[in-house]
Design goal:
Structural class: alpha/beta
Largest sheet: 20 strands, parallel
Oligomer: single chain
Number of helices: 15
Low-confidence stretches: 80-87
Strand content: 15-25%
Mean pLDDT: 86
Helix content: 10-25%
Distance between the termini: 45 Å
Shape: flat
């Protein structure tokens, strides 16, 4: 079935939830004794469409039997009989998702426990895992967090999942995240557990030993008062597959770590005091994922784990006094490598230069996250790595000249986590290797760059795979696309354009616009572009059939959003998908569009602040029928000029003023 647009299903309002429930249950719900019970049933579903659907199917079988309806409601309120066919196995995979968890972290846990089958490598496992995650989000079992690339489980489903799994003969879990625990739980709570999650608590001490032969997952991350682990603590955990200690204050790993012979994923990142390991790690024959970023532990301590598949380290984990060539390349089965850089460490660039030569030797990588001090080092990698070949499956996150390894979130895509990212910082001019890498880049960040006046200088006609573009603090750029230098459609797949602090920017597009350019552009953000005068100029607006969000902020020369002088023949159906329009601190702005001829068929919300010269809105009683809110200042609203009172009354009912 073809659709125009895929949208996430949000929890329903109570009235809509009741309507859906009635349609699913049918005639019995109209019974005068059944209806009040049914309304309580709907309240227990908390507006979740999937839950409403499943519960309605169950209650439909109760027909008009009032006692069965009442019993069903009581059982639903206790969550002891919500039976959703085929859900037990799914919920088992989601039990740790109540708190915000990174997509890839969750998928790594699934892989470690064998939930993701038929994946020969990490890339296949991640592809499969993200497919499953997206399906779970679509049916509301998981939901996106406000944090970048994180998911969490709805509290209603979490309650149901914990109840169902507590009754399972094959799975006993102990899940107490964020409960301000200071002590490790009692023995009767954990001794038979398959999985334990005590993340984000205040646990400071652990038992000297525990009898947890069946334990598969142990999550103790971000217990910031935990400073030590008893030497015998891991002695009985021979089946443990996932161990997360990141964000604790431990300084050493006990010798009983060597008993974790089934361990597949070990997370020690962000343990700033961790420096010592007394165990023999050679026993960890099944370990695939190791993360020691932001620790003081030396990578050489894990040098015998040459079978690792996924390694995340910081430059400070490398031994500067040692022959570096033996530190990274020994892990020759690596599929994923991430190296964080802290430029405050003296000599970091020299270390990284040597590491580049090591990375070139890794032939099985499918994912590389790396910071190149200079363009020449990127050139070395591209020229000598066998991974940089046509049809290569390498996914990369590269930064060049970056002072730190924090990649801008604007460049990351939740929907496409395997995007190739290139971040170019404080560079000069255009190097051929940058043009070559940009041909494979999906998200590009140009930051503090000098010596170019437009993005076109980087061979824009070859950027056929770019979806996201960030331009920040580039003080010599005057236009993004120079249409005079191209005779074909460009940026055909660009979805998001974010421009900030580009003081000499005069226009987004200068010159003729070839049909098909910017055909997928959905979001434009312009901030602190002090000389910008043209936004939606001649020829450009006709291409923006997919534009949904436009935000303009602190651009002090802007007088018109849609320039009347360059859009005289503008059709009423222009910008058919625009949903949100945000205009902030534009002191010279006088019009959005010269009249009310545009239909604005998709516009839902506008926000206007500190735009004192904007006196007329381009709306009437007929257009913008989907408009739901107008946010602004009371003083601005009071100064607006209206052609008729009817339009003012209609729009005033949508206002949120301060």
């Amino acid at each position: 079935m073809e659709v125009d647009e895929i949208v996430d299903v949000q929890p329903l309002l109570l009235t809509d939830a009741w309507k859906m429930f009635k349609e699913k249950v049918g005639h019995p719900i109209s019974h005068p004794l059944i209806e009040p019970i049914a309304r309580h049933v709907v309240e227990e579903c908390h507006g979740l469409p999937l839950l409403i659907d499943r519960v309605a199917r169950t209650f439909r079988k109760k027909d008009k039997n009032v006692s069965r309806w009442e019993d069903g409601l009581k059982r639903l309120q206790r969550w002891d009989s919500v039976k959703i066919e085929g859900m037990d196995e799914v919920l088992e995979r989601l039990e740790i998702c109540y708190e915000d968890l990174k997509d890839d972290y969750l998928i790594e846990c699934w892989r470690a426990e064998g939930f993701i089958n038929h994946a020969n490598n990490f890339k296949q496992a991640r592809d499969r895992g993200h497919t499953v995650l997206n399906e779970l989000i679509k049916v509301s079992l998981l939901e996106r967090s406000n944090k970048s690339k994180c998911v969490k489980m709805n509290k209603v489903f979490r309650k149901m999942a914990l109840k169902i799994l507590s009754q399972s003969a094959n799975s006993k879990i102990l899940v107490k995240p964020h409960e301000e625990l200071e002590d490790f739980p009692r023995k009767e709570e954990w001794e038979l557990a398959n999985r334990i999650s005590l993340m984000d608590n205040g646990v400071s001490t652990l038992p000297k030993s525990v009898d947890c032969h069946d334990l598969l997952t142990l999550l103790l991350q971000r217990n910031k008062y935990l400073t030590s682990i008893p030497e015998l603590f891991f002695m009985s955990m021979c089946h443990l597959q996932v161990l997360d200690l990141h964000g604790t204050r431990i300084s050493a790993l006990p010798f009983s770590l060597s008993n974790l012979i089934s361990l597949k994923a070990l997370y020690l990142n962000s343990c700033p005091d961790l420096i010592e390991i007394t165990a023999s790690v050679e026993a960890l024959k099944h370990l695939e994922v190791l993360d020691i970023r932001k620790t003081k532990i030396n990578l050489l301590k894990f040098g015998s784990l040459i079978w690792l598949k996924c390694l995340r380290i910081s430059v400070c984990n490398l031994e500067t006094g040692y022959h570096i060539e033996t530190q990274v390349s020994r892990f020759d089965t690596l599929e994923e490598l991430s190296i964080d850089v802290d430029s405050s460490k003296e000599g970091w660039d020299e270390i990284v230069k040597m590491v580049v030569k090591e990375v070139v030797m890794l032939k099985k990588l499918t994912s590389l996250r790396f910071c190149f001090p200079e363009v020449d080092h990127l050139d070395l990698f591209v020229k000598h790595s066998p991974l940089w070949e046509k049809d290569s499956c390498l996914t990369f996150q590269f930064s060049v000249g970056c002072h730190d390894s924090a990649f801008a979130q604007i460049l990351e895509s939740v929907d496409n986590p395997t995007h190739n990212i290139l971040k170019l910082v404080n560079g000069q001019g255009v190097d051929p290797v940058i043009i070559k890498v940009l041909m494979e880049t999906n998200a590009f960040g140009l930051i503090g760059h000098k010596g170019v006046s437009s993005l076109s200088a980087f061979g824009i006609e070859k950027m056929n795979k770019m979806f996201n573009c960030l331009i920040d603090r580039c003080h010599e750029i005057k236009t993004i696309v120079d249409g005079h230098k191209t005779s074909e459609a460009v940026l055909k797949w660009l979805e998001n354009l974010y421009i900030k602090d580009v003081p000499k920017l005069e226009s987004i597009w200068e010159g003729p616009v070839c049909a098909g350019s910017l055909a997928q552009l959905a979001s434009i953000t312009l901030c602190k572009c002090l000389e910008l005068k043209k936004i939606l100029s001649h020829g450009m607006i006709q291409q923006l059939l997919q534009l949904k969000h436009l935000r303009v902020e602190e651009c002090y020369q802007i007088e018109e959003i849609i320039m009347e002088s360059e859009n005289a023949q503008l059709v009423p159906k222009a910008l058919p998908k625009l949903k949100t329009l945000i205009l902030l601190d534009l002191p010279k702005l006088t019009i959005i569009w010269a009249n009310d001829s545009l239909e604005w068929p998709s516009l839902q919300g506008i926000e206007i602040s500190m735009c004192g010269m904007l006196k007329i809105l381009p709306f009437n009683q007929v257009n913008a029928t989907n408009l739901q809110s107008i946010k602004g200042q009371q003083s601005w609203w009071g100064d607006l000029v209206w052609e008729d009172d009817a339009t003012k009354q209609i729009l005033q009912s949508l206002c949120i003023l301060d």
